[in-house]
Amino acid sequence: MRMKRLQHALFGAVALPLVMGTYFTALTVGRARPEVRPATVHPTLSRESCVECHAPIADEWAQSVHFRSVTGPFWEGLRKDRYTDLFEALRIPCMNCHAPANVLDVADGARPAERPHQVEFGVDCVSCHVSERGIVGPGRYVQAPHEVIPDERFRDPVLATTGICARCHEEQGDCNKTVTDWSRTRFADEGVTCLHCHMPEVEGPLVVNGPPKARRSHSFVGDKDAEMLRAALNASILIEDEGAAVVRIINDRVGHSFPASGMNWLFVTVRVQDESGRAVAEVEHGFGSRELLPGYLDFWPFLQISRIPYGETREIRVDLPPGHGVVAAEFRYRDWFSVEDQDLVFATLNEPY
Question: 168: number of CA atoms within 13 Å, CB side?
Answer without folding.
Answer: 25
